[in-house]
Each structure stands twice: as structure tokens, then as C-alpha cells.
Write a structure and sequence with these properties.
With 183 residues, this protein is an all-alpha fold. The longest helix is centred in the C-terminal third of the chain and has 73 residues. It starts with 9 loop residues before the first helix and ends with a helix.
């Protein structure tokens, strides 16, 4: 070997290993939380929103149909004193129903665009986090194992080393009084 390691505290290595384990677990928990939020967002965009806007379009088409029938009914009334009825309310209702239908169709297209966008963004997210996941799942686990081995070897080394004591510093045998107490 090139030289001694000069390890001053095995306990510091053990604390570092514990902190490394805690860090790995916290980051993995955070990533799992992000994954859950991402799955909920994907589900909302790919399943909930398309069905919602499909139903909204159907309802808006029904509203346009009913508004058109109401307008035609109003226009079918015979003229009163030579003038046709204005049917302003029916025309306004039809215009509002058409505007709502256009809005719903626009939202459906936006949802389709969101679906394409979220697919791309999820792909980017997973690609960028793959190196972090690899670090967490393999590199940090290997480092934790290496630190555990180092701690075990240092403990074995300290057990194998006999304590350096002077002959007069030997511990008292059970039942013997300390040297100062005999005098």
C-alpha cells in the first residue's frame, strides 16, 4: 500500500453511511411522488379530458339543434300586423349555443395537443432522470456496501490490535484493590 489511511473516527464513517442511506431513500421517495403526480396528470389528459369534451360537444350540439328548432318555430309564426317576429331571443340563444359548440371543439383540439405534448415531456423527463435513478439504484447502493465493508474491516482491525499499555497500567484483577488503595 502507498500509506496508511489515517482514519480518526469509524463512527464518522458510519454516520456518513447512514446519511447516504437517508439521502437515497428521500430522493427515491421524492421521485416516486413525482411519478405519481405525473401518472395522474397523464390520466387526466389522456382519459378524463377527452371524454369530458366529447360529452360537452354532444351537449352543445343538442343545444344548437334545440335553439335552431326554437328559431324556426318563431320564424314560422304568422306576421303580426304585417311584420315578421324579430325572434331576437331565439337568435341570441342559437348564437350562444354555436359559440359554446365552437369552444368545446377548440378544447377538444387543445386536449389532443396536450396529449402529444405530455407524451414528449414524459419521454424527456424519464430520459433526464435515468442517470439519477441509476445513481440511486446502483452506485449509491454499492457505495453503502463499500462503506459497510470498510467499517467492518476497521472494527476487525481495532479488535486485532492489542492495546499498548505499560506493565503498571494493567487493569486490576477482580477482587484486587487498586494500587493506591493498598498503601
Amino acid at each position: 500500500m502507498a500509506g496508511s489511511a489515517q482514519v480518526r473516527s469509524v463512527e464518522a464513517i458510519a454516520r456518513f453511511r447512514a446519511a447516504l442511506i437517508q439521502f437515497r431513500e428521500r430522493v427515491q421517495g421524492s421521485l416516486e411522488g413525482l411519478d405519481g403526480q405525473m401518472r395522474r396528470a397523464i390520466d387526466w389528459i389522456e382519459h378524463n379530458q377527452p371524454s369530458y369534451w366529447k360529452q360537452a360537444i354532444r351537449a352543445a350540439e343538442d343545444a344548437v339543434h334545440h335553439a335552431r328548432i326554437d328559431l324556426e318555430r318563431c320564424l314560422a309564426f304568422p306576421p303580426i300586423s304585417g311584420e315578421h317576429p324579430s325572434c331576437r331571443e331565439e337568435k341570441a340563444t342559437l348564437a350562444d349555443a354555436r359559440a359554446r359548440l365552437d369552444y368545446c371543439r377548440g378544447q377538444r383540439e387543445r386536449v389532443k395537443n396536450w396529449q402529444r405534448t405530455i407524451d414528449h415531456e414524459v419521454f424527456e423527463y424519464q430520459g433526464r432522470l435515468s442517470s439519477l435513478r441509476s445513481l440511486l439504484e446502483s452506485d449509491l447502493v454499492m457505495a453503502e456496501g463499500d462503506l459497510a465493508r470498510i467499517i467492518r474491516r476497521l472494527d476487525e482491525y481495532t479488535i486485532e490490535q492489542a492495546p499498548l499499555t505499560q506493565p503498571n497500567e494493567l487493569p486490576p484483577v477482580l477482587g484486587d484493590a487498586p494500587p493506591d488503595a493498598k498503601d
